[in-house]
Automatic annotation (TrEMBL), chain A:
Name of this protein: Molybdopterin cofactor-binding domain-containing protein
Domain Aldehyde oxidase/xanthine dehydrogenase second molybdopterin binding intervals: 17-126, 562-647
Gene3D superfamilies cross-referenced by the UniProt entry: Aldehyde oxidase/xanthine dehydrogenase, a/b hammerhead, Aldehyde oxidase/xanthine dehydrogenase, molybdopterin binding domain
Residue ranges occupied by any Aldehyde oxidase/xanthine dehydrogenase first molybdopterin binding domain in the UniProt entry: 283-421
TrEMBL record, chain B:
Annotated ranges, domain 2Fe-2S ferredoxin-type: 7-83
PANTHER family in alphabetical order: BLR6046 PROTEIN, OXIDOREDUCTASE WITH IRON-SULFUR SUBUNIT
PROSITE patterns from the UniProt entry: 2FE2S_FER_2
CDD domains, per the entry: fer2
Organism classification: Bacteria, Pseudomonadati, Pseudomonadota, Alphaproteobacteria, Hyphomicrobiales
Gene3D superfamilies: 3.10.20.30, [2Fe-2S]-binding domain
Record key words, sorted: 2Fe-2S, Iron, Iron-sulfur, Metal-binding
Protein name listed in UniProt: (2Fe-2S)-binding protein
The species this protein was found in: Ancylobacter oerskovii
Coiled-coil stretches: none
Superkingdom assignment: Bacteria
Matching InterPro entries: 2Fe-2S-bd (IPR002888), 2Fe-2S-bd_dom_sf (IPR036884), 2Fe-2S_ferredoxin-like_sf (IPR036010), 2Fe-2S_ferredoxin-type (IPR001041), Beta-grasp_dom_sf (IPR012675), Diverse_Oxidoreductases (IPR051452)
Length: 703, 165
């Protein structure tokens, strides 16, 4: 909202016409590089644009995620969309409105301040002037750079922003053909791709006759190295042949992960690149408390398996994908296929919920490669349930070791935090690598480039939320980065924050207990940030927190707090659990400070969804490897939270409309896990430090 | 390879009589989405484990993903596209929109079909009944509580309409 400081998205895409156009009468084209992943971002972006322009929401036509049209905003990730894309459009639309008003004022021979805008029409003293955006569109050249010179509306003038708006895309998603899976093209060639059993696995000889026999109609078999695809006009025949191929395929070589590839002890014993992020202070004399926490692999587990379509006409490659980043994907596709990026058009189409770097990009490569091998045909690649659960990158396993001594008044001193983590960012193009699994399977594929950690400027990867928000004088933070981890891991909602917040907030409860203090009061005494304290006080009031609640009685409450990335939204959560041999989260209260909330109902939906998903991760989810392969081939072997297991959720947003919007899409993951973990520790009278808090671990703790 | 002979079967979809080739145990879902262009029913797992493909066969919820199309010969199939004909489905869809009971929306059409069957046998289900009816459906975005409220909202709306009629 500061006129002379352009948001990053606008600095990268400064031309006004990259964002907005008045091409059709009565309509406004609003382009964003951010894409709809199920989080409702297009509705939120539309609210911001319509607000600044003073046009009705229905006049907006949103263009999203298209390399041929619209700004390059990298990935839709990291809870940056409202801040960056929304921030850019706020400035662009304010500036465009001012340009048009200035022009209208000249034509009307009056001052621009005498005019206002009502649903796109310019009025003077409340009466129509006959001018509107569309009538003047020909007079104003928008192929100019934004200056940031026009002041956006003050918050007090908002009519759309800050008020709940129904999602514009939802009606078509109940029954309509809204998804990439529903696209139909003439002359479609259906395809399935056999996935490598593990990274670098080499495919042995395969009896192609058996595959043909399994198909009722003609299929083609395309094999290049260990990349095997089945193609045909009849999807059922292609799938039948693919099922036989999966069963008969023999794999050798490569980097077969050990069964214990997610265990804290194994992670901590691997060669790792050590990096001191914060020096801290010398360890305090006195009794030192130490504890190690861990999480395993978590699958994205989207309900709709990945899908992509592609068409190659001999010179131009068209790709339809549900990737989070069409521009970075275009670069990687072009590089892997030996094309000039300008010959590749990548368009986003919506799919099932996306919570990070899933199989979308890989499916796009599958389709692109196959399209180039079958020029003139549109190839449609559909992943299976097993592909989606086992071949998409996993959320990275981590071990987090904390240490501190108790100083005067029980305050922590000599705080240290060590993180062992597999990579949180192996998206296409990151760290100079193509990062597309289909390309890795081809004969002559270049050897793998060791991945790096997510840059600090992007909010850290393994060290995301490693800085405890408490007044600790100095913290020592060290990451031990496992670039060579054999399992492909990448960004999943929250990245390192899920494990780090779980660890820090569990440890704070352990310190509070050692200091003989109530966990809520202990946090409040250590938190310097008044907004942080206010969210904790709010949730404690909502949940009726009592310092005298009994422990070890099979039911209890626990608290968790964090500010996502230490710079986005704040959330404090209290979970109430019931426990026998399994944990049931009965209720979850939370208070969120996200500054100005553009679409309150949409934000509540996101936060509650994050809470439910994090509850699932915390109680149930961890991928097990056996004989080198991920065991989670179906929902039976990768159970997620069901309707009967979902907690009642109560959310309160702090009234902070005068503060800038803070990203909240990932805010719930860490605090939810911490609140549940602390509640379970109280109910159980013993602490489980490894996620998930599974039945086996509860039983072991009860022994 | 030999092309198997077609196996033509006739059944009703959303009140319309159709005839399709159901040879080779082709799943009902493939016939609905492919041959008939009814893309509202979704592929999620092909294993009867997630419910994204749920349709009604003679009014009862059925997984279309693994059920052979030949098995619905001479039977009546309803999909989410029946929303234009079926006032209960229409009320459910409206209640889902009123509650904003969705994020990605991929699981919703299957869930709405199970809810449709529930309301047919239990017009005013309590929360526990809705949860029980939907427990075989998976939602990854975490919209469960809104979905349960939406089903109860639709039931209340239909009851009020019935009372007014």
């Amino acid at each position: 909202m500061i006129a002379n400081q352009l948001p990053r998205s606008l600095a990268d895409n400064p031309r006004l016409d990259a964002w907005i156009g008045f091409d059709a009468p009565g309509q406004v084209r609003i382009a964003t590089g951010k894409v709809e992943l199920g989080q409702g971002v297009l509705t939120t972006i539309a609210q911001i644009a319509a607000e600044e322009l003073d046009v009705a929401l229905r006049r907006l036509r949103l263009v999203s995620g298209d390399t041929g049209e619209g700004p390059n905003e990298g990935y839709t990730a990291g809870s940056y969309s409202v801040e960056n894309s929304g921030g850019a459009l706020r400035i662009v639309c304010a500036e465009v409105r001012a340009l048009f008003l200035e022009r209208a004022a000249t034509l009307l021979d009056c001052a621009a301040q005498e005019l206002d805008v009502e649903d796109g029409a310019f009025r003077r003293d409340g009466r129509p002037t006959g001018f509107d955006y569309w009538r003047l569109a020909g007079d104003i050249d928008l192929s100019r750079e934004a200056t940031g010179g026009a002041a956006p509306k003050p918050v007090a003038a908002y009519r759309l922003v800050g008020h709940s708006q129904p999602r514009t895309d939802l009606p078509d998603k109940i029954g309509g053909g809204a998804f990439i899976h529903d696209m139909r093209m003439p002359d479609l060639l259906h395809a399935r791709v056999l996935r490598q059993a593990w990274r670098g696995a080499e495919l042995g000889a395969l009896d192609e006759r058996a595959l043909h026999r399994a198909a009722r109609r003609p299929i083609e078999i395309l094999r290049e190295g260990s990349f095997l695809a089945l193609l045909g006009a009849d999807e059922a025949s292609v799938e039948a042949a693919a099922a036989v191929a999966r069963e008969k395929a023999a794999w050798s070589g490569g980097e077969r992960p050990p069964d214990e590839a997610a265990e804290a002890g194994w992670l901590m014993a691997q060669p790792a690149a050590e990096r001191v992020i914060a020096e801290g202070e010398p360890a305090e004399a006195g009794e030192r408390i130490e504890a190690t926490y861990s999480r395993g692999f978590i699958a994205h587990a989207s309900i709709g398996p990945s899908c992509a379509l592609a068409h190659w006409d001999g010179t131009r490659l068209d790709v339809w994908t549900h990737s989070q980043g069409v521009y970075p994907l275009r670069q990687s596709l072009a590089r892997a296929l030996g094309l000039d990026p300008v010959a590749v058009a990548v368009r986003h189409r919506q799919a099932a919920g996306c919570y990070g770097h899933n199989g979308a990009d890989d499916a796009a490569f599958d389709a692109a490669l196959l399209a180039m091998r079958r020029p003139g045909r549109t190839v449609r690649v559909q992943w299976t349930r097993a592909d989606e659960l086992t071949a998409a990158p996993f959320g990275a396993p981590m071990a987090v070791r904390l240490g501190a001594a108790l100083g005067p008044q029980g305050r922590p001193a000599g705080w240290s935090l060590d993180i062992w983590s597999a990579p949180h960012g192996q998206r296409p193009g990151m760290h100079g690598a193509v990062n597309l699994i289909g390309a890795e399977a081809l004969s002559g594929a270049p050897s793998r480039v060791p991945p790096g950690d997510v840059p600090d400027a992007n909010g850290f990867g393994s060290a995301r939320n490693a800085f405890a928000p408490y007044d600790l004088r100095a913290q020592r933070i060290v990451t031990h980065f496992l670039a060579g981890h054999p399992v492909r891991t990448s960004s999943l909602r929250g990245l390192g924050a899920f494990a780090n917040v779980f660890a820090i907030e569990s440890f704070i409860d352990e310190l509070a207990e050692a200091a003989g203090q109530d966990p809520v009061a202990y946090r409040l005494s250590l938190l310097p940030d008044p907004r942080a304290r206010a969210t904790i006080e709010a949730v404690a009031a909502m949940a009726g927190w009592s310092p005298d609640a009994p422990a070890g009685e099979g039911t209890a409450k626990g608290i968790g707090f964090s500010r996502y990335k230490n710079k986005a939204a704040y959330m404090a959560a209290i979970a109430e659990v019931e426990l026998d041999e399994e944990v049931r989260v009965a209720r979850l209260w939370c208070a969120v400070d996200a500054g100005l909330v553009v679409n309150p109902d949409g934000a509540a939906n996101q936060v509650e969804g994050g809470i439910v998903q994090a509850t699932s991760w915390t109680l149930k989810e961890s991928v097990r490897f056996r004989e080198g392969r991920a065991g989670c081939t179906q929902w039976d072997t990768y159970p997620i939270l069901r309707f009967s297991e979902v907690p009642a959720v109560e959310i309160r947003f702090m009234d902070m409309a005068s503060e800038p919007p803070l990203g909240l899409g990932e805010v719930a993951q860490g605090p939810t896990a911490a609140a549940i973990g602390n509640a379970v520790a109280r109910a159980l009278g013993a602490r489980i430090r490894d996620l998930p808090l599974s039945r086996e671990r509860i039983i072991a703790a009860l022994m | 390879m030999s092309e198997a002979a077609p196996l033509m079967v006739r059944f009703t979809v959303n009140g319309r009589s159709v005839e399709v080739d159901a040879a080779g145990d082709v799943p009902l879902l493939a016939v609905l989405r492919g041959d008939l262009g009814l893309t509202g029913s979704r592929f999620g797992c092909g294993l009867e484990q997630c419910g994204a493909c749920m349709v009604l066969v003679d009014g009862a919820p059925a997984y279309a993903c693994s059920r052979p199309a030949w098995s619905v010969a001479d039977r009546s199939v309803a999909t989410i596209e029946d929303v234009g004909r079926d006032p209960v489905l229409a009320a459910l869809k409206q209640a889902f929109l009123d509650e904003q009971a969705g994020q990605c929306g991929y699981c919703l059409s299957g869930i709405v079909m199970s809810a449709r069957a529930l309301l047919a046998r239990e017009p005013s289900p309590d929360r526990a009944a809705v949860v029980a009816a939907l427990d075989r459906h998976l939602c990854r975005c975490g919209v469960h509580n809104r979905i349960v409220r939406a089903v109860q909202r639709a039931a209340a709306h239909l009851a009020a309409e019935g009372a007014a009629a």
